[in-house]
Design goal:
The chain is mainly α and 128 residues long. The protein contains 5 helices and no strands. Helix content is 84%, strand content 0%.
């Protein structure tokens, strides 16, 4: 079983362009977002397996997008699209951590200008 895991890990590593610092940072943000999301769901009594599995599939989608960006970078002989995709998802994950912090009842820790922008973004999502 160790050999199978090793082959899968090596394949994943190759598919996303390596486990470098940006990927490690994104993984840390994803983990923190997942933990704070569970905590916020627990605190607001909205914890559900349906919501959790939807979140996990979104996290898998992040790595699929990184794989696609890496392939396109290779096809175009560039080295920028992968980094842009990782950066974009890192920003989204950081925003989600801040939103989860607010949902947990620690909104007072978030600066007012940031909190008002997050509320504006959430309202715009509801309209669509």
């Amino acid at each position: 079983i160790g050999a199978i895991f090793g082959v899968l890990w090596a394949t994943f590593d190759m598919a996303i362009g390596g486990i470098d610092t940006p990927i490690k940072a994104l993984c840390i943000l994803i983990t923190i977002d997942f933990i704070t999301g569970i905590a916020a769901g627990y605190k607001t009594n909205s914890l559900s397996s349906k919501c959790g599995s939807k979140g996990l599939f979104k996290k898998i989608g992040i790595f699929v997008a990184i794989m696609l960006a890496y392939v396109v970078d290779g096809a175009m002989a560039t080295n920028m699209l992968r980094g842009m995709v990782i950066s974009g998802f890192a920003i989204i994950e950081a925003m989600s951590i801040v939103e989860n912090t607010d949902r947990m009842g620690y909104g007072f820790l978030i600066p007012d200008f940031l909190r008002s922008k997050l509320i504006q973004i959430a309202d715009e999502k509801k309209i669509k």
